[in-house]
Design goal:
This protein has 201 residues and is mainly α. Helices cover 77% and strands 0% of the residues. Keywords: DNA-binding.
């Protein structure tokens, strides 16, 4: 990457970081190009030249945020964590997002932006889902998951929990004991309502 390309990349990154910061407190529809330009210290023309319109800039900013979290997760996996550590780390990533951005904002974006919804669908189908299958199969080899439990059933169960993740995080927040609550959810995921680990049975 030459000097021009580095400067161009730095300007794009600055604008996307600005949008991500603004989304902490402002709904996408209320963000104006003029406000982004002022916060990022660039001209409105620059924003249009780089992204075409506000919607594309917000979309690319959210995609970048998701890509960064996915990269963090992949880096975490390089440390060969246990399945329980992986679940705990995944919940922590969701918790960070929940505390930074409104779940309603993401839902609004997915509903109003088919391109973003398609991007997330492809990301899950081509990267996240295959990785999850590998983690489950590895968990079976390590004895962390029962060999007799079909991978498809585990995938369905995890998907069901994922769909309710914001509700669980909200309940954890309301409980006043967020850390303990989520640890209990993790234990429930692994050991069921009996709360008995395999070594104790």
């Amino acid at each position: 990457m030459n000097g021009f390309e580095r400067r161009k990349s730095a300007i794009k990154e600055k604008m996307m970081n600005t949008v991500l910061e603004m989304l902490r407190t402002c709904e996408p529809r209320n963000i104006r190009i003029a406000d982004i330009a002022a916060e990022a210290d660039v001209s409105q023309v620059t924003i249009y030249n780089y992204f075409g319109n506000k919607e594309a800039l917000i979309r690319e900013s959210i995609k970048r945020y998701m890509d960064m979290n996915y990269a963090r997760f992949e880096q975490f996996l390089d440390g060969n964590p246990t399945l329980k550590e992986i679940v705990r780390y995944t919940i922590q990533l969701d918790k960070e997002t929940f505390e930074t951005y409104s779940p309603a904002m993401f839902q609004q974006m997915l509903t109003s932006d088919p391109e973003l919804a398609s991007y997330i669908e492809v990301l899950y189908r081509e990267q996240a889902a295959p990785m999850l299958v590998r983690m489950i199969e590895e968990g079976k080899k390590k004895g962390e998951i029962a060999e007799s439990m079909p991978t498809a059933t585990i995938m369905a169960y995890i998907g069901m929990l994922k769909m309710q993740s914001h509700t669980l995080l909200e309940l954890a927040h309301q409980s006043g004991r967020s850390g303990e609550f989520m640890e209990e959810i993790i234990n429930l995921f692994f050991y069921g309502i009996r709360g008995v680990e395999p070594s104790e049975s």
